Hints:
The protein contains three helices and five strands, in the order ααβαββββ. By secondary structure, the chain is an alpha+beta fold.
Amino acid sequence: MTDLERNKRVVVDYYETAFGGDPEKAIADHFGPRYVQHNPDAQDGPEAFTGFVRWLRGEYPDLRLHIKRVIAEGDLVATHSHLDLEPGNPDNPGRALADFFRLENGKVVEHWDVIQDVPKQSANDNGMF
């Protein structure tokens, strides 16, 4: 397996494990010695990440993360995902996420994201995913 493929698998497992309800396992398995967060609404470090996931799952206990695309280059992995906050609720179609992770030695050490609400109606029929 190439480093790019390994890094993609690490990020997918990390993200699915965390949002699947076990952020502590995701951190234990996949965080490096530090975690630098570039989202201005989030703090650095594993405790802040755990707190965010626990809070979000408390607000939306049935949420589902659907990773649609994974791209890797160098030490970066990008994902394009649908965060379905309330599956089956047409009044809350969720959020579109573009996440960028930097890895060192196969561990996540840095994160950037872009988040957009999925609109109920679109000016085109292309979909966001």
